[in-house]
Write the structure tokens for this entry.
Amino acid sequence: MIRDSYWLDMPYTPSGPLSGELDVDVVVIGGGVTGVTGALFLAEGGARVAVLERREVASGATGRNGGFMLAGTHEYYVEAVEELTDLYGADGRRMAGEAWRIALENHDLMAGLMEKYKIQCDYYRHGSYVMAMKRPDRGSHADPLERIVRSYNLLQEDGFDVEYLDEDRLYGIKRSPQLAGALWNKFDGELHPVKYVRGLASAASGLGVLFFENTPVTSIARRGADGNGRGDAGGRGDAGGRGVSSVSRAGSGVSSPGGLVVQTPGGRIRTQHVLLGMNAYTPQLDARYERRIIPQRGQVFTTEPVSERLFNGVFYANDGWEFWRQLHDGPGEGGRLLFGGGRNHHIRAERGFHFLRRRGRQIRTYRGYKERPTRAVQRSNDRSFNSTFPHLAALGRSHRWGGVMGFSYDSSPFVGETETPGVHIVAGFTGRGNAYATVAARMVSDRLLGRPSAVEDQFETVKKVFDPLRGGIDAENRRR
Ligand SMILES: Cc1cc2nc3c(=O)[nH]c(=O)nc-3n(C[C@H](O)[C@H](O)[C@H](O)COP(=O)(O)OP(=O)(O)OC[C@H]3O[C@@H](n4cnc5c(N)ncnc54)[C@H](O)[C@@H]3O)c2cc1C
């Protein structure tokens, strides 16, 4: 049994680290789905781009997730409607609809990139099933069927391709005696996240993007008159003022708000813009995101391969605390089962940091960003798997792993320019990077390239919902 991601268990040769000095139009920090996609879009638009990745491309959450391509910001559509109505009033329902449609746009963009760059990444579009279990688990709604039925009704009214499945129909599809009913979102899909992102990276390299792996960024500073870094442009010291100047660099088409210097141990890069594609790790470089993005660990295992195809599609149960799918890695039509969850039984331990109130002050307790799977959560996972699939309980486990997600307080990502001119962010996916990272990277790259953004034109509420400067987190009140 391997204690690391199944997806990353494949040969890979990383590019070398940065050494010396360089000038580019945009530095992308982070080589996950966000950073690599952003770099690719920028290079397609003619920008000179460097990606700096602390470890290897796809080694963060991108290489550790379930590979689900789910539409939406929340587990239940009804919850998105309720939360956005709370936050924004009567527009909430329309905004929830837009949030779902933006994710469908994201899905189409991903599928388009696979086709354009001929990326083989086990992509299938059999839909997702949001299920109510007969045994609701800790932390989930007392009546998940009510959430599912209301979501189904709202989604149907709003024109989405969904179906409701009762217990009998569900057993035929799911082969588990534990299910009470499900919402089938026919538009969702699945993929092999590492094959996908490394495929994008090689396409981006082909367009001239420079990749530097094993290259941690240590600071972002504003450039002084002599071209050297002066002051902290990324974190505590805000350089003040907002707004990208409309001056264009000759040739690249990238607007120039002023020079930035990105520092790494072996060298530094002078650049016009920085794209933070670090998701959960953003607060480590930019402290202003400490209260906006909370790291949360998620844990998963895969079984030994099963030669039969047990089911297609991807499955979410107990308000999303548990999820599973069968991979497409053979033999024949079959594949391993991937099963994740258990966080709800160990919420505090699975949080990267949280805030405690002591003598009237909030204190941050730091637990780090550990990716190694833990015995306690994996045991909870095993128990859930065995009770959901009693006939498969004896299957051996091939890989167990963890990864760190970046949660926002309202489940929507942060997309756009930060308080520091020239420093942009795409992060805070709350476990849904495959739903929003691509479309968000597109929005930011369009802005940097000075092009109108089709996404922003089509979905006018996006600026509000994805506002990169919106409020901080009240970590103690967050359910997850
Ligand atoms: C167990 C688990 C299951 C999940 N399941 C799903 C799912 O099924 N569907 C879905 O949509 N989402 C899922 N997610 C969430 C999804 O993986 C993330 O939303 C997505 O991968 C985020 O991508 P990213 O590129 O923004 O961040 P990451 O993939 O985390 O990439 C950030 C990168 O930044 C690098 N980095 C950090 N600091 C620095 C620095 N100082 N200098 C240079 N580089 C740095 C990191 O090494 C990392 O590679 C899951 C996550 C986990 C952990």
